[in-house]
Design a protein that fits this description.
heterodimer, A: about 130 residues, alpha+beta, OB fold (Dihydrolipoamide Acetyltransferase, E2P), six-stranded antiparallel sheet, 4 helices, about 20% helix, about 35% strand, B: about 375 residues, Gyrase A, domain 2, Alpha-Beta Plaits, Elongation Factor Tu (Ef-tu), domain 3, 3 domains, six-stranded mixed sheet, 8 helices
Chain lengths: ~130, ~375
């Protein structure tokens, strides 16, 4: 059973969002990293880049496949996790902690409320079977 | 094609029980990787041993007094050079010099040969080969693919592991030679061949013994930490060794000479299908060839990406992937011959961005003797 922390919000594209004021920290879920397999490369944007909700902001690659990553909320990137360049495998081992991808300042802080709760994401995963 | 229509090897239940992630490969349901993951499986094969289900491969018997000449006419390598118990890597060419498939030709005796072909092309190869019989009564062909299971054990400890189960002295079997013997009580063709760049064996047996063979090898390999390996690791292993994958480095449009397989194209053996075109390619020089490259900037080249020298498109990536043992991102590309030399700097279009790479000598990896 994939790990789904209670305090986060989720998208149907398997990204998670942690909200602190108007800053959203975004990464991919345990389910996503498990589906991908061994992550070998993460392609991230730069601080200052702007994205609309549901826009692709980067990609994550396993040995076999490439997957785009979408931001569930619109905003401007304030910080990028450079650590993933040296240690992409942390996406597999710590997807909700040290393997966050970007932090962005949300255009609309309330937008995160429209995302799935942990319970709703878990239901969504079950319905996918 | 629904999951129910996929062909299954005799080890299908075993793969599922091991937690294998099953995918469609050329119409077969095969494990792409197991829970350990492709990187661990790849490293296990390079440092210890890996176990592979390759039962999806095709096997065709060619027997009779005319079999030798028949196969020699259909393939690029010289079948006359084989002795009993020896195998050779070869290519079936079409009359444009392109490849129908690559294969292994096993000689049991001068009137008994086994052709081992790729899974995705077995039916195509059978049609091609039998279509060339044309009333040749000296050759009897049989598509025996359903009569075999095939398991490969590869890696520096592979021979040791298999020896504990085999009734024959494996050190007597030279590279690209084979014997019939018993492994784990099962009658097998024990072939010192493989697709990983490591030492090891491929075992051919009757399908009802597949589980027994697999389980015995797993048990015997336990103290060596053997791992079952899926198709993903099979691909990264052969790529590090710069071995061709049909459909990528070889195809109906890519000749064995372009794929750097000149060493198995014996133009002086006499006539064979494709010879005139291949002889001409050799004479006039190749216009394009397969070259190996390593990424020099962050990024991973994937199959089909375009390759540039300056602003000029000079070819495309035939196989691209991370290399788990070498810890680099590598690939093979079909390039205009002028740019195929080691040291040449190229750029690869990775989803819209041009990323730097360099042509390097192949193979990327060679095992220590």
């Amino acid at each position: 059973m994939p790990n789904i922390p209670e305090n986060l919000r989720y998208s149907k594209d398997h990204e998670w969002v942690e909200v602190n004021g108007d800053i959203a920290t975004i990464g991919i879920t345990d389910y996503a990293q498990s589906s991908l397999g061994d992550v070998v490369y993460v392609d991230l944007p730069r601080a200052g880049d702007k994205f609309d909700a549901h826009e692709a902001f980067g990609s994550v690659e396993s040995v076999k496949a490439v997957s785009e990553v979408f931001t569930p909320v619109g905003g401007q990137v304030t910080e990028v996790n450079e650590g993933l360049n040296d240690a992409p495998e942390t996406v597999n081992t710590d997807p909700y902690g040290s393997a966050w991808f970007i932090k962005l300042k949300m255009d609309n802080p309330g937008e995160a409320d429209g995302l799935l709760s942990a319970e709703e994401y878990e239901e969504y995963l079950s319905s996918m079977e | 094609m629904s999951q129910n229509e996929l062909k299954k090897t005799p080890l299908n239940a075993v793969h599922r029980a091991l937690g294998g992630k099953m995918v469609d490969f050329g119409g077969w349901e095969m494990p792409v990787q197991y829970p350990a993951g492709v990187i661990e499986e790849h490293l296990a094969t390079r440092t210890r041993a890996g176990l592979f289900d390759v039962s999806h491969m095709g096997e065709i018997w060619a027997e009779g007094p005319g079999a030798l000449d028949f196969i020699n006419f259909l393939t690029t390598n010289d079948v006359r050079k084989l002795v009993d118990g020896q195998a050779q890597y070869s290519v079936l060419c079409n009359d444009k010099g392109g490849a129908v498939d690559d294969l292994l030709v096993y000689r049991f005796d001068n009137e008994r040969f086994l052709l081992v072909v790729n899974a995705a092309t077995t039916d195509k190869d059978w049609s091609w080969i039998s279509g060339h019989l044309a009333g040749n009564s000296g050759v009897k062909l049989r598509n025996a693919s359903a009569e075999f299971c095939q398991i490969a054990i590869q890696g520096p400890r592979a021979v040791e592991i298999l020896q504990s189960l085999a009734d024959t002295k494996l050190s007597d079997i030279k590279y690209y030679h084979f014997e019939t013997g018993k492994a784990a009580g099962v009658e097998c063709i024990i072939s010192r061949t493989g697709y990983t760049g490591e030492d090891g064996f491929e075992l051919y047996a009757s399908p009802e013994f597949a589980e027994q063979l697999w389980n015995s090898l797993t048990e015997a390999g336990k103290s060596f930490d053997i791992l079952p390996c899926g198709l993903a690791a099979r691909n990264t292993l052969r790529l590090e060794s710069a071995m061709s994958l049909y459909g990528h480095e070889l195809s109906d449009e890519i000749s064995p000479l372009e794929a750097n397989l000149g060493w198995i194209v014996k133009l002086d053996k006499g006539d064979f299908i494709g010879r005139p075109v291949l002889a001409d390619q050799k004479l006039t020089g190749l216009k394009r060839r397969i070259a190996g490259f390593e990424m020099r900037e962050p990024g991973i080249a994937r199959d089909g990406f375009d390759v540039y020298a300056g602003e000029e498109k000079i070819g495309y990536v035939t196989s691209g992937s991370p290399a788990p043992f070498l810890k680099k991102n590598i690939g093979l590309a079909l390039l205009q011959a002028d740019f195929a030399n080691p040291g040449t700097e190229i750029k690869i279009d990775v989803r819209g961005k041009r990323i730097g790479a360099e042509i390097v000598p192949i193979p990327f990896y060679k095992r220590k003797k």
